[in-house]
Amino acid sequence: MRPNSGESTIEYAARLRDKALSCNFLDIDDRILEDLVQTTSNSEFVRKVLHKQWPLQEALSDAQIHEDTSVQIGAMGHQ
């Protein structure tokens, strides 16, 4: 799977979880995080996940903060 254009990391992770439930993965969260790291274009996200060895929830929390901040910065530029 790949993230859809305009899809947030949280939304993509939810799609991955839905798909992973039909598989026999030992640790679904690890597989989801692995896919996120392999498919994201955000190199800073990958660096943080690998360096800090974050579990999925920590990585998703950071991704959400980054995406929310990007939206706010974009909105400020349009004012």
Explain this structure.
There is one protein chain. This protein has 79 residues and is mainly α. The protein has one domain. The chain contains four helices and no strands. Helix 1 packs across helix 2. The longest helix is centred in the C-terminal third of the chain and has 22 residues. The protein is globular.
Structural topology:
Elements: H1 9-20, H2 28-39, H3 43-52, H4 56-77
Helix pairs in contact: 1-2
Task: Summarize, please.
With 79 residues, the chain is mainly α.
Provide the β-strand percentage band: under 5%
Shape by Cα distribution: globular
| Count of separate structural domains | 1
Percent helix range: over 70%
Please state the structural category. mainly alpha
Distance between the termini: 36 Å
Mean pLDDT: 92
Uncertain segments: none
Order of helices and strands: HHHH
Largest sheet: none
β-strand number: 0
Rg on CA atoms, Å: 14 Å
Q: What is the count of helical runs?
A: 4
